[in-house]
Amino acid sequence: MQENDPADYLSRHWQTGSSAIPVKVDELIQLCAADSENASLYRDMLLDVIRMAQADRNRWDAKIMLHTIREMEQAFSRMEIFKRRRKVTVFGSARTPPDHPLYDLARAMGAELAANDYMAITGAGGGIMTATHEGAGLDHSLGFNITLPFEQRSNSVVHDTSHDLSFGFFFLRKLFFIKEADALILCPGGFGTLDEALEVLTLVQTGKSPMVPIILLDQPDGQYWQAFLQFLRSQLADNHYIKPDDINLLTPCASPAQAMQVVLDFYSNYHSSRRVGEQFMLRLNQPLNEQALAQLDARFGHICRSGGFVQQGVCEMEQDEPELGSLTRLCFDFNERDQGSLRALIDFINRPENHQTRGTA
């Protein structure tokens, strides 16, 4: 770093000339969040804003920061209403007319989700989005609308209800589409749908998003996703731009019932995942039997950086989620690269023949 670098100057100024500021921030945290386990995080957030103020960024940068923080806080607050409810994000074209077979398909998909007590998240627009919400009904619908310079009204199912959440920034809207989803269902669509498909794949493939089912839904004789998968295999996998196992991240389905079953099967034994230190944990509703455990190293050992698989109970570092304490953990040192193989491991975990039967150890 050069001697006169402004960032270096700011750092020295922060360390030597503003010692009273951290004290004032600590006092503020004591007033509003003294007993919160997030107190240190709130402190760092405030200090980052203060650093920005000291640097006196241009007005556009400051407005981006303000609106990002404000919009995220409002979204977190609204989503607290629907906490602990399983949700599925459905993507597809806003241009699909009501008399199109795909419209009926999406409406049936929404009905399947509601019947299984899943909420259907969409972009709150027309076409596939409206159809999904019509099938799901208001209580099982969430709309993440985008505010545009021209009129962009959310669909009639969620409009002007607590289930209608508007975003000013596309990147925050995309974040919540994925953050809140226990599964993602993609129906045929245009650039926007393909953008969502590739972004979701990138996030899961790189480990930046938790593993969830990614379902490609089309009519029984539809070729939209078949052509997409063929392109991935012939142009990406065959040219070594992706690993062959990465195709496992996608599941094509030809009916809403089949798509719903994929979601239900995914969570039949697998519950969730978490990294604790060097260990990656798959949390299970039922432990694996001895025969299944004996197969893990041979079939999936290549995804471990070191060691193998250990089945155990709750870890001391998971005290912040006491409601999950009864679940079994399958722990290993995941290499974070073989996400397609991790998806196959979850399928293995979900097979009923691999579970312990009651009364066995």
Cα-atom radius of gyration: 23 Å
Secondary-structure element string: HHHHEHEHEEHEHEHEHEEHEEH
Uncertain regions spanning at least 5 consecutive residues: 6-17
Order of strands across the main sheet = 4-3-2-1-5-6-7
Structural shape? globular
Biggest sheet details: 7 strands, parallel
* SS elements, strand count: 11
Average of per-residue pLDDT values: 91
Strand content: 5-15%
Structural class: alpha/beta
Number of helices: 12
Distance between the amino and carboxyl termini: 60 Å
What helical percentage do the residues reach? 40-55%
Give descriptors for this structure.
361 residues; alpha/beta; seven-stranded parallel beta sheet; four-stranded antiparallel beta sheet; 12 helices; 45% helix
Could you walk me through the main structural features you see in this protein, from its secondary elements to its overall organization?
- The protein is α/β, with parallel strands linked by helices.
- The chain has 12 helices and 11 strands.
- The strands form 2 sheets. It has a 7-stranded parallel β-sheet, with helices on both faces. A 4-stranded antiparallel β-sheet has the order 8-9-11-10.
- Helix 9 links the parallel strand 6 and strand 7.
- Helix 2 packs across helix 3.
- 29% of the residues are buried.
Short description:
This protein is of the alpha/beta class. It contains 12 helices and 11 strands.
Topology overview:
Layout lengths: L5 H12 L2 H14 L5 H17 L3 H21 L7 E5 L9 H15 L3 E4 L5 H9 L4 E6 L17 E4 L2 H10 L3 E4 L4 H15 L8 E4 L6 H14 L12 E4 L2 H11 L3 E7 L2 E6 L5 H11 L9 E3 L15 E5 L6 H12 L11
Parallel strand pairs: 1-2, 1-5, 2-3, 3-4, 5-6, 6-7
Antiparallel strand pairs: 8-9, 9-11, 10-11
Helix pairs in contact: 2-3, 5-6, 5-10
